[in-house]
Write a structure and sequence with these properties.
The complex is a heterodimer of chains A (568) and B (88). Chain A has helices at residues 2-24, 29-34, 41-52, 55-68, 71-102, 107-114, 119-150, 173-221, 225-228, 272-275, 312-317, 329-337, 343-369, 382-390, 394-432, 439-463, 469-482, 484-492, 498-518, 533-550, 557-563, and strands at residues 234-235, 240-248, 253-266, 287-294, 301-308. With 568 residues, chain A is α+β, with helices and mostly antiparallel strands. In chain A, strand 4 and strand 5 form a beta hairpin. The mean pLDDT of chain A is 88. Chain B has helices at residues 3-24, 42-65, 68-75, and strands at 35-36, 40-41. Classes of the chains: A alpha+beta (568), B mainly alpha (88). Chains A and B meet through helix 2, helix 5, helix 6, helix 9 and helix 11 of A and helix 1, strand 2, helix 2 and helix 3 of B.
């Protein structure tokens, strides 16, 4: 119960922050949507980092490392440090210049002007919403999966239908999702983009700090940093996967399993000698294994197959996925409306460092968890299960869980707000004209749309409550990465035409949806020997954009002069 | 900064960026689970160091390839006609 009290206190603190930022709100739609262009370097860094690192970073990375090992870091984190910083530099600063010069606030405004097409905005809008929704979903799913285990036993007579029997009495995912959505909505409503930026900054600091605290306590429980590495699952000479340790809760320390506890076996038994004593979560060459899984409700033992490690081709082609930051609506909006170009400098340098600070501990915890938790546990629940198992103190567990919630909510707020901004500016005001509505009415429209998106997201999250947070996020990133050729062409290729832009967008989405469907709507999926769909979607989009642009009429001289000042 | 300086700075930054992309594919120790500092698997230690190098590259890019011309373009006076879009 103490854990829950701490979490509730944290949520109240956020509401108070929303109330404080509402006192700074100037009451205008411009202030509500873009905080009157007052976001400086530190707020920009925290906002950009906080929104790109959602449940995906804490809950997802730990779960993925539990499934596939330390390759998870190179797969997403280190390559993101390189590609994100490059995109901020090459795309972000150039977009800022056009936003500053011509007053664009949303990416649809920019693309409409660059490609001289109103229709392009109407095509892009539903696509952007469609791609953002999975990203919102993972926040709500991740929150539900985190809270239920750590609050297990709090309300045994009220919540009697837990996800697994051990979590009886824990706050169920539907209630967590409802509360998280309510709190985020409240502070976004009160403070608009300034409220979201303040909350983002606060929450990003909280989750980075709490992540490090969690790491320290987990290391301590595992017998110190030098011993923690020994905990991960190991392969024996006869090809079994074993856990050498268990955590004795009474003693509050690790105890040795004698003999080691078998949890699975190598499927390629001829490799047993070669892999004897290897801890497969610390290497990356793929190894096919079969794990045992106990049905928590019936007690029946079954088996399932899993590939540890990462195919090399998958590792290489994953570099397309971080390109998604170039098309994320909320980042686009940050770039167009930043206070100055210099505001980007801190983000370019510090973003890779922030990624490292958060991801290295999470990936290690996930790999260590392979030696302590049952292999069949849902990957999104790995972090909270480790906290529950290793950090006994309920107040500390509450604080650490608040850190996870902070990471989740710091993503939801900006996305909700950005969707409201795009809908209001690019659909409603674009059609009806700016004079038709008062500032109050404009803010009301944005808020109403945000509520609609929140309701849709919540319903979908309850429907897809067991989806893998990491994989769902990758599908969202893949869609935005597929649209990346559009922004590059818009900024750097004078010959890119309206028809080319349409072709690029349509090709990207057709290929993306084709593979999304094949994945079972959000599962892990690679093409052929391990190519990620994002790479194929990207190439399809780029080829279509270039080919169609070359056979259609070039943009007008006015547009070229406007968007290519260096050539004018 | 002169145009020549800026151009050579950009070439250097692009060169380092491409080098980093190659270094990221560290196939040479994919099967090595040796610990660095007694707890960090070498594959993870390498990529953590890679993140530090990314930050350093960002610093070099800002010092040597900052788009001063673009900044100047954006800061110049804009007519109302040019701002016909956006500005909610």
């Amino acid at each position: 119960m103490s854990t829950l009290v701490v979490i509730v206190c944290y949520l109240c603190l956020l509401l108070a922050l929303g109330f404080y930022s509402s006192r700074l709100f100037r009451g205008t739609s411009k202030d509500y949507f873009v905080a009157s262009h007052s976001i400086g370097p530190f707020l920009l860094l925290m906002s950009v980092f906080g929104t790109t690192m959602t449940a995906f970073a804490l809950v997802g990375s730990t779960g993925k490392s539990f499934e596939r090992g330390i390759g998870t870091y190179g797969l997403m984190a280190s390559i993101s440090g390189l590609v994100h910083a490059a995109v901020f530099f090459i795309i972000g600063i150039r977009l800022w210049a056009f936003g500053k010069k011509y007053g664009y606030v949303t990416q649809i405004q920019f693309f409409r002007a660059r490609f001289e097409s109103d229709g392009l905005g109407y095509l892009l809008f539903p696509i952007l919403v469609l791609l953002v929704v999975p990203y919102l979903l993972i926040g709500i799913i991740g929150a539900g999966k985190t809270i239920e285990p750590v609050t297990a036993g709090a309300f045994p007579t009220i919540f009697t239908d837990p996800s697994i029997p051990a979590w009886l009495g824990g706050v169920p995912p539907w209630l967590t999702g409802l509360v998280v959505c309510g709190v985020v909505l409240a502070y976004v409503f009160m403070g608009g983009s300034r409220g979201a930026a303040y909350a983002n900054t606060f929450q990003t600091i909280v989750f980075m700090f709490m992540g490090l605290v969690a790491f320290v306590f987990i290391v301590k429980a595992l017998g110190g940093i030098d011993n923690a590495g020994n905990v991960a699952a190991r392969i024996t000479e006869d090809g079994k996967i074993v856990q050498d340790f268990r955590f004795d809760k009474k003693a509050g320390a690790l105890a040795k399993n004698v003999p080691p506890k078998p949890i699975g076996r190598l499927l390629e038994s001829d490799r047993a000698n070669e892999l004897a004593n290897v801890q497969p979560h610390f290497t990356r060459t793929p190894i096919d294994v079969e794990f045992n899984k106990k049905n928590p409700k019936t007690g029946k033992i079954s088996s399932f197959e899993r590939q540890l490690g990462i195919p090399f081709l998958t590792f290489i082609t994953y570099l397309f996925i971080p390109l998604s930051v170039g098309m994320f609506p909320h980042l686009f909006q940050h770039w167009l409306t930043a206070k100055s170009a210099k505001a980007f400098r801190l983000t370019v340098i510090a973003h890779p460092l922030c990624i490292m600070v958060v991801w290295v501990p999470c990936v290690l915890i996930g790999a260590w968890a392979s030696g302590l938790l049952p292999p069949g546990i849902p990957p999104p629940a790995v972090l909270s299960a480790m906290l529950k198992l290793l950090v006994g103190d309920p107040i500390l567990t509450g604080l650490l869980t608040a850190g996870v919630l902070a990471a989740i909510m710091s993503s939801l707020d900006s996305q909700f707000l950005c969707m409201g901004t795009i809908f209001t500016n690019d659909i409603v005001l674009h059609r009806a004209g700016k004079e038709k509505y008062s500032d109050k009415q404009i803010i009301f429209i944005a808020r109403a749309f945000i509520v609609g998106i929140v309701v849709l997201t919540y319903v979908l999250a309850m429907w897809a409550k067991d989806a893998n947070v990491f994989d769902l996020a990758i599908w969202c990133f893949s869609g935005f990465a597929a649209l990346f050729p559009l922004v590059v062409a818009a900024l750097y290729w004078k010959r890119a035409t309206k028809e080319g832009a349409y072709a690029g967008i349509i090709a990207a989405m057709v290929v993306w949806f084709y593979y999304f469907r094949l994945s079972g709507y959000g599962g892990e999926y690679v093409v052929g020997p391990g190519i990620v769909p994002a790479a194929i979607c990207f190439v399809a989009s780029a080829v279509a954009l270039v080919a169609v642009s070359l056979v259609t009429k070039p943009p007008s001289k006015e547009t070229i002069d406007k968007f290519f000042p260096d050539a004018a | 900064m002169s145009t020549t300086e800026s151009s050579s700075g950009k070439t250097l930054v692009w060169g380092l960026f491409l080098l980093m992309l190659v270094l990221h594919q560290d196939k040479w120790w994919w099967d090595d689970g040796t610990f660095v500092f007694g707890f960090l698997p070498i594959g993870l230690a390498f990529h953590a160091a890679f993140s530090l190098a990314c930050a350093a590259l960002g610093w070099v890019a800002i010092k040597m390839a900052w788009p001063h011309d673009l900044e100047a373009f954006a800061e110049t006076e804009t007519t109302a006609a040019e701002k016909e879009e956006g500005s909610s």
